[in-house]
């Protein structure tokens, strides 16, 4: 039998599985090979779970002040205790600290009392709150067996407020600003970018000049100017909305350019021409045929844009031009560490900065993995 007469070999199961997979399956298979991206996805998911129900993970009311616990040092969590007979038993607790005064400077000094502990338990009762903003409850993940005793996993600030609980509460504001701000930027960027790339001509010229003007503006001075123009007597919710709007109005231009470039390359493709000849409306061609073809790239761009929004809000609030107390965000919390006295007395006030770093790194790892997986055929 000649070589030309040989029957074609059957494709292997792996090849058949790859050939019949959808675009999103290919993206997932490529994404899960990216170890840092998977780690970023897990950490990001955990952060947004905390942002959804921060009071459940908090131990103390974030706004509760305690004049007798000013700059209280962090208390380490201990899960096991050694009994008198030498056996080790599971008993979550923290070491209790006593407040003393330096006889010369009268500065507060906290000393660990090895003989006294504060026993903890999981799913303990604490201050009342609304789970998901709807369900009234008093259950917290961990808390003291005696509600009169406060615990400070990350210490306290100058007013005796629990830093751990305030970081968790600030997570809700800072992370939601990233989501809401990017959602608004996504809407504006996709709308103007698709119109610019699909229609071209004078419409494209006008939109591109607007985009170039926005991209040419110095970002931080514009943020500062717009944020400073907001009246300080506005309600906290309105102030939050306006800060989000300001960040969105600056952040849509880059996404619009990406969408425009993709539309310019897709509008002459065969499937677009076929849809047009089939009588499909222009809006259907844009949103039903063209946008889904590179939706994975948009998802990757959005994931990388969220950290920029979070950092922008943190910077504005840190400078005193963003969100204002009593609103709690990571930027507002970092304002507590602006002076030398705070740095020397309570270095744990930098903990919100560590939360920002962890969240931004996790989102960047996730975005890098999505960007690499968005075009799996190039692997």
Q: What percentage of the residues does DSSP assign to strands (E)?
A: 5-15%
The number of helical segments is 14
Q: What characterizes the major β-sheet? A: 4 strands, antiparallel
Task: For the largest sheet, list the strands in their spatial order.
Answer: 1-2-3-4
What does this structure look like?
The protein has about 375 residues and is of the alpha+beta class. The chain is about 55% helix and about 15% strand. It folds into two domains: about 230 residues, MetI-like (MetI-like fold, Orthogonal Bundle), CATH 1.10.3720; about 90 residues, no CATH class. It has 14 helices and four strands. β2 and β3 form a beta hairpin. α3 packs across α5, α5 packs antiparallel against α6 and α8 packs antiparallel against α11. The mean pLDDT is about 80.
């Amino acid at each position: 039998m000649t070589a030309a007469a040989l029957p074609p070999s059957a494709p292997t199961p792996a090849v058949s599985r790859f050939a019949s997979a959808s675009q999103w399956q290919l993206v997932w298979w490529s994404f899960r090979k990216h170890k840092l991206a998977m780690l970023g996805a897990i950490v990001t998911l955990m952060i947004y779970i905390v942002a959804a129900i921060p009071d459940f993970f908090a131990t103390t009311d974030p706004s509760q002040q305690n004049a007798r616990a000013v700059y209280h040092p962090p208390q380490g969590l201990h899960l096991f205790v050694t009994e008198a007979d030498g056996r080790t038993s599971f008993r979550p607790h923290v070491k209790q600290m006593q407040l003393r005064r330096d006889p010369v400077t009268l500065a507060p000094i906290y000393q660990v009392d090895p003989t006294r502990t504060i026993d903890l338990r999981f799913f303990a009762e604490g201050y009342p709150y609304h789970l998901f903003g709807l369900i009234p409850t008093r259950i917290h993940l961990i808390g003291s067996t005696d509600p009169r005793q406060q615990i400070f996993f990350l210490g306290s600030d100058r007013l005796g407020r629990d830093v751990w609980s305030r970081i968790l509460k600030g997570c809700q504001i800072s992370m939601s600003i990233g989501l809401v701000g990017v959602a608004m930027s996504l809407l504006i960027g996709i709308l103007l970018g698709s119109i610019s790339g699909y229609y071209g001509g004078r419409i494209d010229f006008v939109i591109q000049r607007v985009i170039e003007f926005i991209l040419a503006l110095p970002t931080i001075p514009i943020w500062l100017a717009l944020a400073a123009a907001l009246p300080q007597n506005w309600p906290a919710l309105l102030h939050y909305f306006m800060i989000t709007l300001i960040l969105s109005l600056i952040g849509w231009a880059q996404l619009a350019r990406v969408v425009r470039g993709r539309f310019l390359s897709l509008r002459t493709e065969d499937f677009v021409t076929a849809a047009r000849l089939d009588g499909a409306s222009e809006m259907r061609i844009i949103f039903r045929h063209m946008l889904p073809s590179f939706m994975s790239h948009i998802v990757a761009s959005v994931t990388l844009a969220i950290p920029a929004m979070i950092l922008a809000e943190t910077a504005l609030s840190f400078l005193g031009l963003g969100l204002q107390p009593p609103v709690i965000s990571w930027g507002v919390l970092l304002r507590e560490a602006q002076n030398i006295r705070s740095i020397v007395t309570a270095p744990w006030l930098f903990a919100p900065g560590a939360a920002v770093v962890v969240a931004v790194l996790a989102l960047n790892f996730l975005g890098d993995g999505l960007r690499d997986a968005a075009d799996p055929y190039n692997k």
